[in-house]
Amino acid sequence: MPTLTRWFIRSGLVCLLAALLLGVLMQWGPAAAHPWLRAAWPTYLHVLVVGWLTQLIFGVAYWLFPRYSAASPRGSERLGWASLVLLDLGLLLRIAGEPWAILGGDTAPILVTSAVAQLLAGWAFVANTWPRLRER
Questions:
Q1: Do the Cβ atoms of 43 and 103 come closer than 8 Å?
Q2: Sign of torsion, CA 87 93 99 105?
Q3: What's the distance, CA 19 to chain centroid?
């Protein structure tokens, strides 16, 4: 298994654990009444879907899609790492900014930067994966 795939899957597992913990906190006990946790539903969904599912998909796809060439079987490793870093950066910015914005803070620059980072991560992944989907 390539190192990049392991990092995508590890990051995804961390996000799964974080989402599960946040989900429990949002629903259970006196902590559920805290305003930050009541505002965390969109963040919870984002961490679960983008953090867990998307990173798992990206990692497995990077590993298992058809080979690009003998010299560079998985395409550009730099684009793969860029995708991982940008996706995780976007997630961290979203985790920090979204609950604060919902509670009235001005975090538009943080959330825009988060969205752009995740968009670039997706583009990097597609740019690296697209050439591997050619007909033989």
A1: no
A2: negative
A3: 12
Residue holding tokens 């996000």?
Answer: 15
* pTM as predicted: 0.86
Strands (E), the chain: none
Q: Say how far apart CA 11 and CA 86 lie, in whole Å.
A: 12
pLDDT in tens, 93-122: 999 888 777 677 788 889 999 999 999 999
CA distance 116 to 132: 25
How far is 89 from 74, CA to CA, in rounded Å?
Answer: 23
**Residue 76: both structure tokens together:** 């550009």
d(CA 59, CA 53): 10
Write the Ramachandran bin of 65: left for phi over 0, alpha for psi from -120 to 50, otherwise beta: beta
